[in-house]
Amino acid sequence: MSAFDRIPLAALEAAILPIEEASGLPNLLYNDPDMLAEERDRVLAKTWSGVGFAGDLPQLGYVKPISFVGLPLVIMRDRDDVIRVFHNVCSHRGMILLAEEGPVQGSIRCPYHSWTYNLAGQLKGTPHLGGVGVHKVDGFACEKYGMKEIRSAVWFDVVFINLDGEADPFADFIAPIVERWQPFLGDTGYARMRREANSGGQMTIDVACNWKLAVENYCESYHLPWVHPNLNAISRIQDHYHIMFANEFAGQGSMVYNLADTAGTRLPVFPEWDSARMKEAEYITVFPNVLLGIQADHTFAIVLEPVTNGRTLEHLRLMYVGDEAVGPQYQACRDATMASWKEVFGEDIGVVEGMQKGRVSPGFNGGKFSPVLDNPTHYFHSWAAKRLLASAAI
Known about the structure:
By secondary structure, the chain is α+β, with helices and mostly antiparallel strands. The chain has helices at 9-15, 28-31, 35-42, 170-180, 182-185, 189-192, 211-219, 224-227, 229-234, 322-325, 331-358, 375-393; strands at 49-53, 62-68, 71-77, 83-87, 102-103, 108-109, 116-117, 123-125, 149-155, 158-162, 193-194, 202-207, 240-245, 249-254, 261-262, 265-266, 281-286, 290-294, 298-308, 311-321. The strands form 4 sheets. Strands 11, 12, 13, 14, 17, 18, 19 and 20 form an 8-stranded antiparallel β-sheet that branches.
């Protein structure tokens, strides 16, 4: 019996009921060590999941090995400046091809038997394939044995993959949020986003919780008065609104975001941003594991990396508006912005880790929702439950 088979289907069906009647996802989905692989194959693999950032590959020929829920993958920027994602294994004997990130000079060489690949994943060299000094064999077609590419796309600097290759085209998948953010970013705002040089504006938080708890916490503002007292003094719970749309996106918005103001200097803002909505900000999860934030003067993306059922790495990248915004004259503003987010995200660690510890209790198995303040969290639970139920029906 698989880990998934131990979940009563009725517990999943309860999560998709109207919020007044619904129960949350059952404990096994958070504390069973075998469940994460089930979620990878039944949920994460069947949609567009975030695995990294294009900006982390700073030059042509750069490679970055990653793990996606136990699977060895590699993100590569080829010589034509195209980002690709591959399974990080040699087609010969399954050896890991790339162990460290960095620029590749020439070809990718397997450390075991020296089979070589170019940055498009094509197999180019098979030394001694037919015996010593015989590097080619009749009937062996190199083009059949290249690195196995995974369907991928880049948007908002995030590298997305569709592991099973069956999801809708990425442009269709992401279109609802692009349309929603048209008044803020227009058509060209995305191209204006800039990251700081030398690894500025980034951090990774190692959290002892299931990846879903990080999503749930990000989606709602209910916890603000108690977990984020400084933030709540500026952006109160009543200044927030819920966001839920297109079955793939949920989060919250604020009506009173304060533009960064340090030493009398304000960061540049998006020229496309609706001037009547300058103090509005939105924080949306792209299901399953990408958290996005937009403000008039900066944006950020967080990719959640599920490591185990009880451990998640939260990879954050901040982005600013145009080349000038990442120049030295705005360093103090950027530092203040980063410090603010470090405080906010740091305050969340205790609560998501506390919920993870609580998921082992027989006195809790999913919980109830506030019908007024938990709507985005219920929306995510319902999404996950529907995906799991659909996989059970196959």
